[in-house]
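Journal club prep, shared notes

We agreed each person brings one worked example of a sequence with its structure written out as tokens. Mine is Cytochrome P450 4c3. I'm keeping it raw so we can talk through how to read the token line rather than staring at a rendered picture. Sequence first:
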Amino acid sequence: LSPDVQTKIHEELDRIFGMDEKREVTERDLNDLEYLACVLKETNRIYTAGPIIGRQLQKDTKICGYTLPKGSTCVALIYFLHRDKDVFPDPEKFDPDRFLPENSAKIPEYGYIPFGAGTRNCIARYEISTNFKSVMQLKDMQ
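Then the structure, token by token:
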């Protein structure tokens, strides 16, 4: 992680938890870790756990003038979706600020889907985020 990102994370952790290392983490604390959430989202954008999503079409589907027949298997390459320069300028750069509220509003609804989308998205997405934020409370991770 870049030093400036680490500094922002530590500042946010200090603001929320102070110096009390024995204090229990609450759900409100986790929700208040806004910058850390941006870091986690940017990490998931670059290092998506499931870089490919496959679906079988339930009906004939027309896309860009082509008709794909029912039963066809379609594959979405999340790896490339998350590196689309039109959605994520300088896509190889680690930049958590992409996910600040004023910037994330520019990301299309399905432009960022590290856990899939719709009814079949990853059910562990919230647990992963909660566990990561809880571990980060340790503060001295390198």
